[in-house]
Amino acid sequence: MADLTSEPQHSVILDELRGLTIDEIFEKATSLYNDGQLNDSDMQAMGSAVVTVNRIFSKQEQHHFFIRQATLEDVDSLMEMVDFWAKHGQNLPRKRQDIIRNIQTFAVCVRDGEVVGCACLYVYDSGLAEIRSLGVSPIIQRQGQGRAIVEFLLKRAARMAIKRVFVLTRSPKFFSRVGFTRTVRESLPEKILKDCENCPRRENCDEIAYIREIPSLNI
């Protein structure tokens, strides 16, 4: 026989969700997760559901932009985008030579022939990968470009048989919505050894680590 004692509590939660936006429902789920009422599997499922819903409702806007591999012709645009967000404290600065040498790691979002967003996928020796330098033009934010860039890079990671992708971010809600789960920097020794130890903000770092498991891609 089903246990009926838990039904009132579930009904209360469902009643609280009525009339909320998708973002508000996800925030409620995050609160339940932090209180131990949702496990990691539940939270990942919730993140995937939010991604699916947003993708469906944003289809009418997708024809305005597309994501592609960056080329050397994009270097000036990449420098401008990276510099803009570095000055706003959201990303680390990158040298032009560094971007040129690693152009194959970058993806760009293009709208009306103009680069309006970018990010790169950096792969560590262990096979762990990091999404870096994510930025979208402030003029067109919150239109799905950032999510599309991340999904493009996650598919690239899957094709490369990468099992885990992480980020260090000051925008935790965004990465939660695209299926990432919060973790701790200590679980990312490659990142700590390569960048964090030499970062001038390492003693007062306010970035939060998020990670996502990448399922195998059947190709």
Characterize the main sheet: 7 strands, mixed
- Counted by DSSP, the helix tally is 9
CATH class term of the largest domain: Alpha Beta
Strand order of the largest sheet: 1-2-3-4-5-7-6
CATH topology of the largest domain: Aminopeptidase
- Which range does the strand content fall in? 15-25%
Radius of gyration: 19 Å
Q: What is the strand and helix layout of this fold?
A:
Elements: H1 7-17, H2 22-34, H3 40-57, H4 59-62, E1 66-69, H5 75-87, H6 96-101, E2 106-111, E3 114-123, E4 129-136, H7 145-159, E5 164-169, H8 172-177, E6 181-182, H9 189-194, E7 208-213
Parallel strand pairs: 4-5
Antiparallel strand pairs: 1-2, 2-3, 3-4, 5-7, 6-7
Fold and architecture overview:
The chain is α+β, with helices and mostly antiparallel strands and 219 residues long. The chain is built from 9 helices and 7 strands, in the order H-H-H-H-E-H-H-E-E-E-H-E-H-E-H-E. It has 2 domains: 4-57, no CATH class; 59-213, 3-Layer(aba) Sandwich (Aminopeptidase). Helix 2 (22-34) packs antiparallel against helix 3. The chain has helices at 7-17, 22-34, 40-57, 59-62, 75-87, 96-101, 145-159, 172-177, 189-194; strands at 66-69, 106-111, 114-123, 129-136, 164-169, 181-182, 208-213. 42% of the residues lie in helices and 19% in strands.
